Amino acid sequence: MKAIVKERPGAGACYTDVDRPIPSSHQVLVRVRAASFCGTDLHIYKWTPWAESRIHPPMVFGHEFAGDVVDVGAQVERIRVGDHIAAESHLPCFECYQCRTGAMHICQNLQILGVDRPGCFAEYVAIPEICAVHTDPALPWEIATLQEPFGNSVYAVTEAAVMGKRVAIFGDGPTGIFATAVARAFGATQIFCVGLQPYRLALLRHYAPDRIFDAAQDAPVEQILQATRGLGVDVVLEMSGAEAAIHQGFRVVRKGGTFVAFGLPAAPIPINFADELIFKGIQIKAINGRQMFATWEQVQNLLLSGRVDLRPVITHTFPMAAIDTAMQLLTGQEAKAGKIVLTPGAAG
Questions:
Q1: Cα–Cα distances in Å, from 113 out to 63, 73, 180?
Q2: 140 lies in the same domain as 181
């Protein structure tokens, strides 16, 4: 089969021939119908220090996808050939304390599809049955593949209980945009969005936040505090991982408010533990992925009900063979894409 492979250390990837996987007894083989880019894939493609420390080439990467099942292992019980599925990219061990107490998404021995095991930027991928999530055929493939990253935002917003609250969202990447849509659907009364990239700030307008701030030109902290009469917001959703945004989030969350931490900083950052946390009496909730599998139920309910429409975030679709062309939209000084969807096949 054809696949996008990180063949060797260094920037780039290639679209080449690899062996088609054979599912083990507890795995299902899925024909990939659509896959989508994540920031993790960008790290692997660019070969950042994180990728250098974690990835072992040669390997097929990618972890967001949807497709139909073409084969199942001998001990698979729940999934059938022909089922439409999306993938939970967290691969649990089933044996650790977290797995045995209802927290598989933070498994002590967690592996990630396309990072620790061969991924989905391919014509076919084999995944454990537990990670194959039934998907309603009413969802188009290009929407079905977004359920995994959309679930990150759904989990972040649900943990903050935003109904009737003022919310500030930091980050204009796809998870920040998704969080804006979910916060609106879940009844937030006032939504402030802060980002840096004009292309993606424009995408945010599809979800009608009350105010959008360009952090490079505006003064988001001062304006959010002014809009809330100096009180601050009830909830901050930090979806960027940028050091400046994290500190701005601590400044605008009201005393006794909730700070949801999802974005991953590129390096350790200093925090004024007394002033930013203790004296404000805030709650911090850290989000890792999605809950297995309560979040997935919420995701499908939101999408099938029409409460959230993800189509405006999909700005480009490419065949997998055009991986380099697609990556050019994300590797420049400013991102020129929202969510990029890949489909198996050759360019042109």
A1: 5, 18, 27
A2: no
User: Which of 16, 26, 40, 135 is flagged as catalytic?
Assistant: 40
- Dump pLDDT digits (tens) for 95-148: 999 999 999 999 999 999 999 999 999 999 999 999 999 999 999 999 999 999
pTM score over 0.85: yes
**CATH at 136:** 3.90.180.10
> Under a CB-based contact definition with an 8 Å cutoff, are residues 79 and 140 in contact?
no
* Residues 266, 136 share a domain: no
H helices then E strands: how many in the chain?
Answer: 11, 18
43 as an active site residue: the answer is yes
Which residues 6+ apart lie within 8 Å of 306 measured at CB? none
166: tokens are 């003022």
94 and 58 in a single domain? The answer is: yes
Q: Do residues 214 and 92 share a domain?
A: no
Out of 43, 63, 84, 105, the active site residue is 43
For residue range 26-43, what is the model confidence (pLDDT) as tens digits?
Answer: 999 999 999 999 989 999
Kindly state whether residues 158 and 212 are assigned to the same domain.
Answer: yes
Structural domain boundaries, residue 202: 152-286
